[in-house]
Amino acid sequence: MDLIVVGAELLATVNDAGDEHRGGWLAIADGVIVAVGHSTDPLPPAAEQIDASGCLVTPGLVNTHHHLYQNLTRAWAPMTDKPLFGWLEALYPAWTDNLDEEAVYLAAWVGLAELALSGCTTSTDHHYIHPAGAGDLLAAEISAAQELGMRFHPTFGSMSVGRSAGGLPPDRAVLDEDDILARSVEHVQRWHDRSPTAMVRIGLAPCSPFSVSPDLMRRTAELAERLDVRLHTHLAENDEDDSYSLEKFGMRPVDYFAEVGWMTDRAWAAHVVKPNGEEIARLGAAGVGIAHCPSSNMILGSGIAPVAAMTAAGCAVGLGCDGSSSADAASLWLEARTALLQAKLTSGPASMTARQALQIATRGGARCLGRQSEVGQLAVGAVGDVAVWDLSGPSYAGVGDPVEGWLRCGPTAAKHTIVAGRVVVRDGSLVDGRLTERLAAHRRVAERFQRIIS
Fold first, then answer.
1. Domain count for the chain
2. In contact, 127 and 141? CB cutoff 8 Å
3. Chain-centre distance for alpha carbon 351
4. What are the pLDDT digits (tens) for 109-143?
5. Cβ atoms within 10 Å, residue 176
6. Are residues 363 and 276 in the same domain?
7. Per the count of CB atoms within 10 A, which of 271, 274, 320, 442 is most buried?
């Protein structure tokens, strides 16, 4: 064995049966879980042993929607005083005129480090701004993820309809659609790993109805089918999104989503705040995934997504931090807790438990990414991605149920985060020793963005 985690206060497997083991342990070899045991089972020998006494052990959390580059323009109050469209229009110029490989690499490195500290082991990213001469921004992100040891599902995002053609982004931020499709093929061929233990997989992600054409949406869906990769976009994000689709396409966003060939279980969509009952049923019947981004939706005043109804309809619902220009904090624990509170507020106190929120944050997210059999659970044959949560201290005094206590008390960060059997966060600190250096470089680059928007 390479690594064994022993002595958990509770080991929550989030497997199909929902098994939980007091005093449980698990063993990892070659990046894969090879044994899960009870407190009375004999422990196998291992090269490294992690003591999880007093801790909840869960699968690593899965982030299904992010814009990592946005942590270069974080918590800028004048921008988040605007709803979605005004917020985007205010920030597009700073992003477009300043992004390059260095900026994207540093933003990804810092953002993924922040996620790891919150117990996240798998993250996607939706990067859709590729300024002329900026370099290979997808490769820059992947380089950062590989250095940190994070499991990464970046999407090649795109925008093709600028302001002069009725879109939202400035014209200098958009790409030719044939070029977008050609680059999509190149990125998939270069990076996409189809193995069950893959550390990198690529999705295709035209940004939104207000920044790409219906033709690009259709052609991308066809290309994803041919290449057998996943599809991602923003959908039904707020009232402005509804109004834009009705004005430009003569239909609501979910109808448009279906019209361009995206109503499939290959697709997962971000936000989905404004679907009606009939649309929820259609999304669920098709098995469309939903990246629920509760903090961002509240900060931009977009609304609260009907998660309980979408889950009941059959949608694969996961969690997303969204970009740090709106959500500000890249903490999957925070998103899970906020999702729990929102569900109780909007659908009643019995509508969601902490275990259901944990399931959304793990198996639900894995299902969005097409990896529900090997990611998001602690089971033999699953990847060795684990989060260990310390439940000691005054915040957890009196807790009887470790899972409910983990989510309802706190705030909390992971004590240990393990990806593919390798410790990425140990005793609450990033194992990679370059964090201070990277933060200093990130600050230098971020100041360039701040000068543009101030």
1. 2
2. yes
3. 23
4. 999 999 999 999 999 999 999 998 999 999 999 99
5. 11
6. yes
7. 320
